[in-house]
Amino acid sequence: MLRFFGLLLIAISLPSFANENAYRLGAGDLISISVYDEPDLSLELRIGLSGTISYPLLGDVDVEGLSPKQLELKLLEKLKGPYLVDPSVSVSIMEYRPFYVTGEVEKPGSYSFHPGLTVERAISIAGGLTERASKNRIYVVRDKAADEVVTQSIQKEKAKLADVVRPGDVITIEQGFF
Question: 79-98: per-residue pLDDT in tens?
Answer without folding.
Answer: 998 888 889 999 999 999 99
